[in-house]
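Blinded run. Sample ID left blank on purpose so nobody reads anything into the name before looking at the predicted structure. Input follows.
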Amino acid sequence: MSFAPPRLRLLGLSTVLAAALPLAACAGDGTSAPRTDTPEVPVEQLYSGALTQLDRGNWVPCAQAFDEVERQHPYSVWARRAILMSAFCYYQANKYSEAILAADRFITLHPGNKDAPYAYYLKAVSLYEQIVDVGRDQRRTEQAMAALGDLIRRFPQTDYARDARLKLDLTRDHLAGKEMSIGRYYLKRGEQLAAISRFRTVIEKYQTTSHVPEALHRLVEAYLSLGVVKEAQTAAAVLGHNYPGSEWYEDSFTLMAENGHETPRSVAQAPAALPAAAPAPAAPAPEKLVLPPQAVPEDVAKPQEAAMPETPPEEKSAESKSEEESGGWFDWF
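Blinded prediction complete.
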């Protein structure tokens, strides 16, 4: 009788086990418990729950509830309402990134809707309220300026555009302040050419801001430091013509006199005129938007009275559907 060596017996046993494991795994798949899906909740119940959170001022749960309306019932007329309500609730909760995403989603899905201006406005204001001081990166400021400009260009006659114009002026003033801060830093270090570049940016790109008089004065300083008298006289003349009573012109006039140079005071001698500068903005934090009274349709104004329309949206006529799509449920102006 011959026996296989122990090493060969172990090898054979491991081979059998390796072949049996996949079979056991397949058998286990058949006996595993089925996955439980989230039960679908009627849309009126979801929307009513979201409105309850809205009345209580629970902004994040409210936004999440409106998101659930869109997730479970994406093709209902309630989903369109829920997207914009979600953006508003995230904005109120200072969740600006989520508010911007929701507003962008509404703009993408319903670009021609009557409430599209409000979505553009929510996006622009969410960016505007993230503006930081001039000592930090101004990427959000530039994005806010682009969004405000887009709103004004698309919907120039709306109340949103009127408010956006004011915010756009403040945003430009903020960016000009950033350039001035960098220019002063270079001028203090004796890097006049770099400073001149920053001050000229303020004069050429942000002519209507409150920083232009100082930028012209700093140009006079920088040019005199370099010995470029003619350019210094030109900057002082433009300053005197546009801001004759400002303290910056008086300082420039004194500086030119101390260096033995004259500054033309008459308007005829001034080479160019700039647009009138905007007054220095007082920039307190803007007030939060107030939810318009007609933001929620009357049939769902109270959570306990919430109910779906008598005729399901799918059974509406083509004419009524077009009216629903073009109608504005944020039409409070």
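Unblinding after everyone has recorded impressions. The chain has a mean pLDDT of 76.
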